[in-house]
Amino acid sequence: MEHTYKSIEITGSSKTGTDDAIRNAIAKAAQTITNLHWFEVVSTRGYIEDGKVQYWQVTLKIGFRLED
Amino acid sequence: MEHTYKSIEITGSSKTGTDDAIRNAIAKAAQTITNLHWFEVVSTRGYIEDGKVQYWQVTLKIGFRLED
Amino acid sequence: MEHTYKSIEITGSSKTGTDDAIRNAIAKAAQTITNLHWFEVVSTRGYIEDGKVQYWQVTLKIGFRLED
Amino acid sequence: MEHTYKSIEITGSSKTGTDDAIRNAIAKAAQTITNLHWFEVVSTRGYIEDGKVQYWQVTLKIGFRLED
Amino acid sequence: MEHTYKSIEITGSSKTGTDDAIRNAIAKAAQTITNLHWFEVVSTRGYIEDGKVQYWQVTLKIGFRLED
Amino acid sequence: MEHTYKSIEITGSSKTGTDDAIRNAIAKAAQTITNLHWFEVVSTRGYIEDGKVQYWQVTLKIGFRLED
Amino acid sequence: MEHTYKSIEITGSSKTGTDDAIRNAIAKAAQTITNLHWFEVVSTRGYIEDGKVQYWQVTLKIGFRLED
Amino acid sequence: MEHTYKSIEITGSSKTGTDDAIRNAIAKAAQTITNLHWFEVVSTRGYIEDGKVQYWQVTLKIGFRLED
Amino acid sequence: MEHTYKSIEITGSSKTGTDDAIRNAIAKAAQTITNLHWFEVVSTRGYIEDGKVQYWQVTLKIGFRLED
Amino acid sequence: MEHTYKSIEITGSSKTGTDDAIRNAIAKAAQTITNLHWFEVVSTRGYIEDGKVQYWQVTLKIGFRLED
Amino acid sequence: MEHTYKSIEITGSSKTGTDDAIRNAIAKAAQTITNLHWFEVVSTRGYIEDGKVQYWQVTLKIGFRLED
Amino acid sequence: MEHTYKSIEITGSSKTGTDDAIRNAIAKAAQTITNLHWFEVVSTRGYIEDGKVQYWQVTLKIGFRLED
Predict the structure, then answer these.
(1) Contact list, J37 vs chain L (CB under 8 Å)
(2) Nearest 10 degrees: Cα torsion D26, D27, D28, D32
(3) Quick check: K43 pLDDT over 90?
(4) N or C of chain G: less Cβ packing under 10 Å?
(5) Structural domains in chain E?
(6) What is the C-alpha to C-alpha distance for residues K39 and K59, in angstroms, rounded to an integer?
(7) Which of G24, G33, G39 to mutate to test the interface with E (most CBs of E within 10 A)?
(8) Which residue of chain G is at minimal alpha-carbon distance from L28?
């Protein structure tokens, strides 16, 4: 079938690392959107305090299938 | 008047070709959004099966006017 | 805490100039979204009539914090 | 011989589709410029009315050889 | 109708600020070209003297409709 | 399973149009590579003769699954 | 003479607008660097509070001539 | 000596995370290519099922030295 | 207050993985710079020996607040 | 004074090398345009015959001051 | 005829300069590939020892015609 | 060992050509920085007088190893 997809931009954060920030962003999106299908990393940033990474922040495009 | 526009990212697919994938994306968006105003192609991709294009997939930014 | 942010793309317009187009885009977004947090300019364009800028149009990514 | 080329940016439009918008842009350029040599697509956009593409607009760089 | 547009690249300068550099670029283009239709900012630069901006320079793509 | 993919860059050409140039590129790649999986358009160009498009040329990234 | 230039990246902020954020960045750089020569805008961002721009932040590349 | 290098584009996948997807891509390439020398991340994507990352997919450019 | 920030480009390396290369870059920068505030990943690369990643190398922009 | 500049895109070619292709492009532009002011390299390409570079081709943006 | 082209990415190096690094890359590719047709510079880098360029390294896309 | 590198942006100029502008930039940087390790060309520009290139200007990122 000829599906249609929408993609949104979400920034997840984590105190642990980049992969965990990605998992948090997707878990949050999954609370309100079904049919999440793929993600792509747009940028990886973070906040530093006392010379250490305090928050890792990864911005994703997340795509999901629209209901037909 | 000083209008405001929002743009969203939609991927349409088609078994026929790129222009048809664009038309499908816009037709789907028009089901729930009024005042669609313009589109811009972000990327053109496709899935291949048995050495032939099975699905053409075009990702668009679609802009629409917000109610004043 | 480990917040999650969403960013949307809005184009504001103004008869006055670029900064005012940015202010208008944010004011419009603030009518329906709380927790607006940051913006980034994506592109600056405008429409010309009779050899003068009639509308300044600035497209922004606007980020806001999702409820935890 | 060591030719020199100039390239200009032209946007063609069509009610039919992207390839036709490209053909229209080149046909228009050919009315006043000889020695057109190549084109490259810069962006593909369009205007939407009543939920359908009203105008397909393709912006091209078109290159032509300058007289030696 | 199916119009064709050409876009050119112009850098305007001003001692005042960025918006004024844009206005100057368009005013200059309007002296010799009719049907100016839109502009898009390509880059914003400037020259500094004695630790202050002496000239603001904004480079624009300016589009205009070709005669049918 | 955890597959690995390779992608190559192929330019297809056609006297007909952009979609046909894509189909030709994929058909050529399929002569020597199995498991072709997806494509993405990198650039769309063409050669012009006598003021008309003589060859449409579309450059693709084509991805295929490596044998496990 | 054959000068050499170095460029650094500075983000200026302002409560007033984009041009003022640029002026502040250059004024700050001029406190410790002589021979500032040019700037180029890299990105324009801002922080929002209560639905209004609280800080305009413009990131610049600033170039200066090294002593011969 | 004046070596020559070739670079290819490989996408590795993993159920674990991004670094592991990179390791898998390189291990696969090392099965058939000697003298692998460096890699660079081109894009980081993934597939989502049931609101969780099912496959992490990292696309790399991998460079290797050609025999002299 | 209207702070000014400077950003520098640092490449950290690690035998362990990408996040650790980021941590090493920031730890090194923190030895000589106070007020480190944020980072952004510019590129992720690595050196390969014997078909395995020997060094992960991540290039960051690191921003810090200049003394007022 | 507040000058205005126009920039055009020219591709020069040479049998000798890249710098010479740049010189040829500028010499050709100087035949019909006065006040040439600066150039910037957009892309460097070339044609190969019998395994050797036959023509070096460098595409430039060339800027010139418009008459006040 | 409707030819198909493949392009590969090769980095040539030279102790002499950029043009020579390009020539070396193409000479190396010509040892195993016939029908080399064009190249495009992707990046220009180099290694420095004792404050001087030791190796110039130019990365090219090199295109060649596939047998029909 | 796990080294850390810093990269800075320097523009060298020359009356001779692009390679010489690169050499000049590196020679200047080597006057004050030890352990220069690599460079990458960011942009190639130049100033024109009387229809000829007066100064070739190449902007480089130059990387050097920080003391452990």
Answers:
(1) 47-48
(2) 100
(3) yes
(4) N
(5) 5-65 (3.30.1660.10)
(6) 10
(7) G39
(8) G4
Which residue in L41, L56, L64, L65 has the most chain K C-beta atoms within 10 A of its own C-beta, making it the best mutation to test that interface?
L41
β-pair type (D5-14, D52-65): antiparallel
CA distance B50 to chain D (A): 27
pLDDT given at position L6: 98
Instruction: List E14's β-bridge partners, or say none.
Output: E56
What integer pLDDT is reported at residue E1 of this predicted model?
A: 56
DSSP K1-18: ---EEEEEEEEEEESS-H
Q: Which residues of C touch E60 (CB under 8 A)?
A: none
- pLDDT for I1 equals 56
When the pLDDT of each residue in chain I is averaged and rounded to a whole number, the result is 96
Neighbours of I18 (CB within 10 A): 28
CA-CA-CA-CA dihedral for B30, B34, B40, B43, to nearest 10? -40
Q: Which residue has the tokens 């309007």?
A: E30
This model of the complex carries an ipTM of: 0.96
Q: Which two tokens stand for residue G59?
A: 């990131």
Helix-, strand-, coil-residue percentages of chain G, each rounded to 5: 20, 55, 25
**pLDDT bucket at F66, cuts 50 / 70 / 90:** very high
Nearest-angstrom CA–CA distance, C6 and F18: 36
Q: Is F24 buried (19+), middle (13-18) or exposed (0-12) by CB count in 10 A?
A: buried
Residues A57 and A45: their CA atoms lie apart, in Å, by: 5
Residue found by looking up tokens 């000083």 in the block = B2
> Which residues does K56 contact at the CB level (< 8 Å), separation at least 6?
K13, K14, K15, K16, K17, K18, K20, K21, K44, K46, L19
Which residue from I8, I15, I59 is facing L2, i.e. has the nearest CB? I15
The helix-helix angle for I18-30 and H18-30 (nearest 10°) equals 120
Cα separation of D7 and D36, whole Å?
9
Q: Which residues of F touch D56 (CB under 8 A)?
A: none
CA separation, residue B37 to residues B66, D44, E56, J39 (Å): 11, 15, 34, 38
CA distance A24 to J43: 41
* Contact (CB<8Å) D53/B41: no
Question: CA nearest L42 in G: which residue?
Answer: G7
Q: Do chains A and H touch (3 or more CB pairs under 8 A)?
A: yes
Nearest to F60 by CA among B3, I19, B44, G38: B44
Verify whether the Cβ–Cβ distance I28 to L4 is below 8 Å: yes
Which of G6, G8, G9 is the best substitution to test chain I (most I C-beta atoms within 10 A)? G9
- The answer to whether F28 touches F12, Cβ cutoff 8 Å, is yes
HSE on the CB side for J33, CA within 13 Å?
A: 22
Instruction: Note the helical H segments in H1-68.
Output: 18-30
pLDDT band at A1 (very low <50, low <70, confident <90, very high): low
Nearest chain H alpha carbon to A58: H44
- Mean pLDDT (whole number) for D33-61: 97
Which residues of G are less than 8 Å from C29 in CB distance? 51
Residues of J in Cβ contact (< 8 Å) with L56: 19
